[in-house]
Each structure stands twice: as C-alpha cells, then as structure tokens.
Amino acid sequence: MIVDADTIEAGACLWADVCIVGGGAAGISLALALSGQGLRIVLLESGKQREHAATQALYAGEVADERLHSPPDKYRQRRMGGSTAIWGGRCVPFDPIDFETRSWVPDSGWPLSHADLLPFYPEANELAEAGRFSYDADEALGRAAPPMIRGFDSALVRTNSLERFSCPTNFGRRYARRLQLAGDVKVLLGANCTAVRLLPDGSAVDELDVRTLAGRRFRVAVRSAVLATGGLETARLLLASRDVAPAGIGNEHDVVGRYYMCHIAGNVGALTLNGSVRDVRHGYEVTPEGIYCRRRLSVSEAEQRRRGLANAVARLHFPRITDPAHRNGVLSGLFLVRRLISYEYGKRLNDGTPATAAIYARHLLNVMADPVDTSAFLAHWVVRRTLAQRKFPSVILRNRTNRFSLEVHGEHTPRSDSRVTLTGCHDALGMPRLRVDWRYSAGDIESIRRTLDLMAREFERTGTGRLEYDAHRLEEDLLRFGAYGGHHIGTARMGTDVRKSVVDRDCRVHSVGNLYVAGSAVFPTSSQANPTLALIALSLRLGKHLAQRLTARPVTLVDTGKPAAAPRPELPLAA
Ligand SMILES: Cc1cc2nc3c(=O)[nH]c(=O)nc-3n(C[C@H](O)[C@H](O)[C@H](O)COP(=O)(O)OP(=O)(O)OC[C@H]3O[C@@H](n4cnc5c(N)ncnc54)[C@H](O)[C@@H]3O)c2cc1C
Q1: Which protein residues touch ligand 1 with a CB less than 6 Å away?
Q2: In the prediction, which pLDDT does 553 show?
Q3: Fold of 1-53+79-130+172-262+487-570
Q4: Three-class SS of residue 473?
Q5: N vs C: which end of the chain shows fewer Cβ within 10 Å?
Q6: pLDDT attached to residue 123
Q7: pTM exceeds 0.85 for this model
C-alpha cells in the first residue's frame, strides 16, 4: 500500500520487521524482494511521485570546487523512484576483476566475489527492464552478428562486451502498482527519516525518526533498518545520527563519507578507422528481445593485471559538440538548443568554450548546410525517443568518415581524502547539509593514458586504424566536466577490516546489529561499470539475507499505528 505520511497520526510509533529508508532503485528492489516473505515492511520515501521543489531543496549542499563536482542537489532526485526518474538506463555488470584485491589499486578488494553477486543479476536485469542477463555480443546478438570493427582481432583489447539499456525504467512509476497492491509493504510518501536512533549501548537500531515538510513527526520501531538513500545521503544520515554514537553511526574509525568515488570520463582524441564505414558498429544494436545495446572497447582482465591498469572502457563517439569545426548540423542543433536541456544532460554542452556571436553563427551555418541529416535526426528523435516507450538511448550520428573521438569511462580509484562531510548549515527539517570534496589521483589519469596507448598500438598492429590523442591535454579532457555526475560511490564502503570499512559483506554496519545499507555507497571500488545494475543485484542479495535472518525467528505481526510498546529490535547475532 502507498500512503501519504501526513495521514499518519502525529507522535505515532509504527512497527516494521524491516524499515527501508529511500524509495529509489535500491529501496524499491529490496522491498519487492522482501514482499511475500511473511515480514512487515515499511518504506519511508522523502518525495512523492512527482518532483517537488521544497523536497528537492533538502538535497542542497556545498561543494569544495564546483569545477570538479556538481552541487549535491543536481544529478540526484528526491522523489519516489529516486534518480531513476532521470537516469540514462545504461546497464552494465561489474567485471570479476573489480572484486579482487589488486596491488596496483590502493584499498581495492571486496569481501565478496563476482560469483556471489552473479545469481542476482538476472532478476536485477529484469527489474531494470534490460532483457536477458547477457553482456557478451556473440551470445546476446548471435555469432552471425558482424564484429564491432572488422579486422580488429586482439586478445588484449576486447570489442565484445556489451552495455544494455533500460527503457529507461523509472522505478517509482513502474513499480507503484505492485507496491500499492502488496499487503505486507507500506510505502509512506513525504516521509523523511531525520535520525536513526540506537539503543543506549549503540548495539542496535531502536527507532527511526520521521518528519514531513508539513511538520508531522512520528517514529518507526524496527527489527532491522536499511538505508537506501543513495551514495551521498546515506553518509549524511549516518553522520547526522549522533545521539548515541558521537562521531555518527558506523563512524568509530572515521570512514563514513570517505573514499567517495564517481567515474573519470570524457571525450578524448581522434580515431580514424580504415576501410568501409559499413565495417564499423559504433551505435546501438537491438537484441532479439528488442533491447538496445552497444559495444565498447575494453582491456582484457589478464592485460589489466599484467600492466597494472585500472578498469576502463571506451565507446566510439562523435567530436566535441561545442566546436563548430565538426560541421555537423545535428551537433550544432544540439548546441543551439542547449539551454532547453536539463542541467544533467546539458552540462556536457557547456564546456567553458566562450559562446561568442561568431560561434553561434558558425553553428547556425552548420545546421543550414546540413538540412537533410538535421531533419532526419529530428524525425528519428521524435519517433524513437520522445514518443517511444522504450527510448532510443542517446544521440548517435550517421558515420560518413570513419572518424571518431573516444568516450572514455574509467574507474576512479578510492582515496580516503575524497569525502563528504556535514556543514554547520541545516535544511528545512533541521538536518545538517552536506559538503562534497571530490578528489581524484594522478594515477587515475595515468592509467587511462596507458589504456589509450595500448588501444592505439592494437589499432596499429591490426592495421585497422589510427588513434591519436594529446597526452598533455588528457587530464583536461577527462576533467572538463569534473566528476562523472550521478554515480555516487563508496561513502559507506564494504570490507572486513572495521578500521577501513563501514559495512560487512552482507551490507550490515559493522558496529550495529540490525542496520544495513543498500546502494552504491557500499561499493569499495567503482569499476568501469555504471553503478545501478550492480546496486540492484546487491539489494536483491540483501533481501535474501534479511528474509533468511528475520523469518528464522518469526514474531506476531501487529499494526500498532500509534504510540505503543514495540517488539524489541533484533539484537546483534553472536559474533
Ligand atoms: C542524469 C543521470 C543519469 C544516470 N544514468 C545512469 C545510467 O545510465 N546507468 C546507471 O547505472 N546509472 C545511472 N545513473 C545513476 C543512477 O540513477 C543511480 O545509480 C540510481 O538511481 C541510484 O539508486 P538508489 O536507489 O541507490 O539511490 P537514489 O536514486 O538516490 O534513491 C534514494 C531515495 O532515497 C530518498 N531519500 C533520500 N533521503 C531520504 C530520507 N532522509 N528519508 C527518506 N527518503 C530519503 C530519495 O528521495 C530517493 O528516492 C544516472 C544518474 C543521473 C542523475
């Protein structure tokens, strides 16, 4: 059932076997996984079904350097469905190597393996509406499908790994009906968790404080609580809950909020491929079940190990949009309408190049000189993107020259001084606001440089093309827009060493017996992959763990609905 939190009696104490805080991809996947298991689930979601300015303003905060990281109320959405209301839908699983301890990646190594997560990916793919869990081009498209680049046969640089695309599915809208009909799930909209209250000895969560923007306050007493509030907000909630744990919950060793990662991404260089344009697949292909997918260049795991490289991929991309020298009407058209595009998708059209009258005039000339392609693109965009239910994922241009730039998406390696902290300012509900200080390492850029050099050598060796880039400008090209927006990773990292991590392999906060985190906050490393598919899989794994743990000791279900003696929270399991 889904109800407005303002309908809950002021001062009431609800009771839940599992209280999930946050109704984004992580929280909704977890609620669906737990439903039907004989448990009482309460899902607290700050937002409602639509964007609401005052709710979104609760996300506002500070950044140390706006050139490096967008303000915290951008690139995330505080409403039912969370950021899936605006995500791009690119689904990619993590690679087995991402879970390993790699001597060349400081603080790498997950306490679980790729094999541990594998059983949960097919259902994660289904929830994301990205079709089968099949990310190898031969398997997903069939062996008869032509290769990405004919003649590029390399054991070192792969062209067969795929990314698949969700509709993109807005989890809030897509799963509203299932949640509405679920008798064991109570979704409260407009319900902001403002504090996690521990038992006096700090060993377990007792209650969660909830407030609405209209001023209503109530509590939820829990057997277990799960923070699924996104990679930034999870750290905020842990750090701000200080009545029993003075440094914040799970923060005995000053790890909460540290190791904050996004991805290192940008458009780099010029790749000129030999042969016919028909021998190159740079855009979207469609799997037999109708899912858009795309191939990319990636370095084999063996070669990453041999050369000590961080994980990274590169897609064949078009030239920089802002530079009218590309003489492409579609790209110039995008430049001209950039002010109509949302902050998140327009940011890459505002790269600091001075937009003088002369630049505008050259873009306008490009559009006028290219009427056929420009109108064909417009028609395609309206039919396949605006009106279609499964949307064409992004702008792809007809390729007439076999010249591309590379769109790099690389692992951002963890460092403890890349972090989020609390400021002295408070939001409308009295919660301290966040300050984001995102940092990267010279090694991140160097690893991408060596990856590009390897790719260049393989193009040359196979005689398929020439990749050129300016190594001196690489850092500028990769950091032109700062941290890749929307991927908020690592602020409550998973590990076995309690001094260097916040949660264990089951996503449970080390020091609190019944408090869990769902989402990319727990990822100890960032991979080349976008985070959402993996965080859904991890949420489903958490669902299985919680169901096993909580149904082993059933309790009588009663809806207190008002202040009452709640059943005792679950105590920590014996070590
Ligand atoms: C423009 C953009 C494009 C993206 N494209 C991709 C992509 O192509 N592929 C990909 O893998 N990822 C992509 N992402 C990232 C993706 O959207 C996120 O990884 C994913 O949505 C995170 O889900 P989540 O449930 O962990 O967190 P969120 O989506 O942040 O959900 C958290 C929820 O918690 C609620 N909440 C917060 N605080 C509280 C509180 N105190 N009390 C109660 N509720 C609270 C919020 O309202 C929200 O609904 C993109 C993101 C953006 C912004």
Answers
A1: 21-27, 44-47, 75-76, 78-79, 82-84, 86-90, 192-193, 228-230, 233, 237, 344, 485-487, 519-520, 530-532, 535
A2: 58
A3: FAD/NAD(P)-binding domain (3.50.50)
A4: helix
A5: C
A6: 98
A7: yes
